[in-house]
Amino acid sequence: xxxxxxxxxxxxxxxxxxxxxxxxxxxxxxxxxxxxxxxxxxxxxxxxxxxxxxxxxxxxxxxxxxxxxxxxxxxxxxxxxxxxxxxxxxxxxxxxxxxxxxxxxxxxxxxxxxxxxxxxxxxxxxxxxxxxxxxxxxxxxxxxxxxxxxxxxxxxxxxxxxxxxxxxxxxxxxxxxxxxxxxxxxxxxxxxxxxxxxxxxxxxxxxxxxxxxxxxxxxxxxxxxxxxxxxxxxxxxxxxxxxxxxxxxxxxxxxxxxxxxxxxxxxxxxxxx
Length: 273
Hints:
Blueprint: E1 9-12, E2 19-23, H1 34-42, E3 46-50, H2 69-82, E4 88-93, H3 95-106, E5 111-117, H4 122-129, H5 135-138, H6 141-145, H7 151-167, H8 174-197, E6 214-219, H9 227-232, E7 241-246, H10 253-256, H11 258-269
Parallel strand pairs: 2-3, 2-4, 4-5, 5-6, 6-7
Antiparallel strand pairs: 1-3
Helix pairs in contact: 1-11, 2-3, 7-8
């Protein structure tokens, strides 16, 4: 438990290994990190991926304000505290990446390293949204997700959740898509969408300069997050930084590009990148 909530998690690796905390995005669950967890555990790390707020059945508050970024950061720090880790390695994808950037800027003393997949630094994303480039078009779906009356849920779940299936764009296995959709239709969808509803319209997540060693991996075929924000991210990291664009890779990097992500991640954690 963290606070009043009970979270489900996947754990692997030696109990005395350095903690690597992995934060998933939308609409994903902790098992999006399956391949990364195995690789980290084999390398001697204690890998922990959590079904976050809104996704774990025991952590689904109703109020939208309960999904504010500050609450999500507090959850992540609470996971590390519960695991006895004063400092840890943090890995995030998609929304988990936004939380990771924000946590790293607010609490650098808690981290050994930061690794983010797909998601640019929040300030880079904000700049790209207002630059006149293509990021605003790419992000139009956010306004739909934020519409009142659970309009997004109704649309995604119509016709046997056809729109929800389409989000993955064939990048995940059919088994993984079915598992995700099943869990989303059993109560996790509203919780996941509340992350969008709790933030400002332009996805301006509170974050500042990053002062911990950082790896940022971006897929060049990402439909939601474009190259401009990805390249601008370097402006906000004042520490050893590696940016790796993966040509031909989709948004769903933990699942679809694990064979490329894992060597990069392990090199970064050991300081050999």
